Amino acid sequence: MARKKKRIEKKVKIGDKRVSVYGFTAFEIQQKIEALEAEEENRLNPTFRTVAEEWQEEHEKSVEYYTADCYKAPIKDVISEFGDLKVSEITPIDIQNFINVYAKKGYKRQTVKLRLSVLKQIFDYSVLHGLIAVNPALSVKIPHSVKNGTRDLPESADIEKIKAAVKQGFELFPYFVMYTGMRKEEALAVRYEDIDFKNNSITVNKVVIFQDGGKPTIRPHTKTDAGMRTTPLLAPLKNILEQSERKSGYIFSPAPDGKTPYAKGAFDYAFSKYRKLYGINCGIHQLRHEFATLCFDAGLDAKEAQKILGHSKESVTRDIYTHIRESRQKQAIDKLNSFIGT
């Protein structure tokens, strides 16, 4: 009968600790020691990927769903760029070069700013945990050539198509956003019970968020405190809503009884199908800007429009108003040039 191999013990120092490593051969023990040393090295001097993922996990516990969601793409981008580098080896010039290259791709200032903001927070986390002494992203600047971005207003042809196509069902959704100025997640959470037909108002006090593969969850609070509001029920929308045979449940629902809101995949499919069917090019957020245009044309000042739109800052509404003015001025110049050229 073969003798059973005896397990060997070897005491070694890993970092500042002495540990016992066990194995049946010297080769096995050496492999385990090397694995422990690599693990200790990565703990003391981790890769950017390791730190970024740890920061992301901790960060998502302390912020709203919307903030965490908008950070996902920037986090993916910075990990793709710096992931395999040791966090202690990344220099200010490395980060500046990344921002410069990203800016040259034509992205708007807010998009570039988000990438830099994520980098600064990840390196702050590294400083806090003693991995580096100084945040290398603090001295990095966004190039002056990067422009502030504002979504284009929808084309008048799209607006007319949306009006012509409106009826009960999904065709109502773009029309609803255009005449309420609600965000997508706000509009999808509205129930018939939130509508006061007598006083011509709609209460906005909840949103749909998509989690676990796009499953809809109702959150009893809007994106910001300013989002908790009452928005006017305008006559064109009221006329359509009053024609509905259903008087309860979610206005926009894949279920005939309106008991459930749309899941992300179902909504995206329905909206894509709608745009293709009616030849509409604009996106949902552009329709929110169309509502801002209605406010502008009606003579509402920025403060009044801010309350209806649910912007957290009046400056956001003012920027949209400025964009509307500039777009109108450009259209006027184009018309004048076209006239002179004929």
Question: How would you concisely characterize the structure shown here?
Answer:
This protein is mainly alpha-helical and 342 residues long. The chain contains 13 helices and 7 strands. 52% of the residues lie in helices and 10% in strands.
Helices and strands in order:
Elements: E1 8-14, E2 17-23, H1 26-44, H2 48-60, H3 65-82, H4 92-104, H5 109-128, H6 156-165, H7 172-180, H8 184-187, E3 195-196, E4 201-204, E5 207-211, E6 215-219, E7 229-232, H9 235-241, H10 264-278, H11 284-297, H12 302-309, H13 314-341
Antiparallel strand pairs: 1-2, 3-4, 4-7, 5-6
Helix pairs in contact: 2-3, 2-5, 3-5, 4-5, 7-11, 11-13, 12-13
Walk me through the structure.
The protein has 342 residues and is mostly helical. It has helices at residues 26-44, 48-60, 65-82, 92-104, 109-128, 156-165, 172-180, 184-187, 235-241, 264-278, 284-297, 302-309, 314-341, and strands at 8-14, 17-23, 195-196, 201-204, 207-211, 215-219, 229-232. The strands form 3 sheets. It has a 3-stranded antiparallel β-sheet. Strands 1-2 form a two-stranded antiparallel ribbon. Strand 5 (207-211) and strand 6 form a beta hairpin. Helix 3 (65-82) packs across helix 5 (109-128) and helix 12 packs across helix 13 (314-341). The longest helix has 28 residues, at 314-341.
